[in-house]
Design goal:
mainly alpha, 6 helices
Length: 148
């Protein structure tokens, strides 16, 4: 219950940061410099909050998932920060990383691909502790049998 409340708090705080960051775009003179940091933390924090919220649905213990979740959070912060603060590519001689401009490559691989590799591995290593047991499903099974 505590992890669920913490996850919801992180999601709310992250959404507030994102709303603040987007809201500053309408200020006279443009967005202040700190709004990019708020956008990075808000985006990464909301994804972390949803990860924790999803993991608490099984009722399992989250202690073993703490390190993979923090690793994902740091990876997301780094990837979003790099993409926002990276210099624009040169049109005549663009630098390419695996065929993409650096900021695009970091977003694609850092936000899309690496978490896709880390999360299933973390889930597999902690499956016995975090997955629902057959005892968890028995109330639902008995309710389904009574309904028919």
């Amino acid at each position: 219950m505590r992890a669920r409340r913490t996850a919801l708090t992180v999601i709310f705080a992250s959404a507030s940061l994102l709303a603040l960051a987007y809201g500053t775009a309408f200020l006279p003179g443009g967005a202040p410099g700190w709004s990019l940091g708020a956008a990075v933390l808000g985006s990464s924090g909301s994804l972390l909050g949803f990860l924790v919220l999803g993991a608490t649905g099984s009722g399992g213990r989250l202690r073993r998932l703490l390190i993979p979740f923090l690793l994902i959070f740091l990876l997301l912060v780094g990837a979003f920060a790099f993409a926002l603060w990276a210099p624009a590519p040169e049109p005549e001689q663009p630098e390419l990383w695996l065929g993409l401009p650096p900021a695009t490559a970091v977003l694609l691989y850092g936000v899309g691909l690496l978490p896709l590799l880390i999360l299933p591995l973390a889930y597999a290593l902690t499956f016995d502790e975090t997955a629902a047991s057959s005892g968890d499903a028995s109330p639902a099974m008995s309710a389904g049998g009574a309904a028919s």
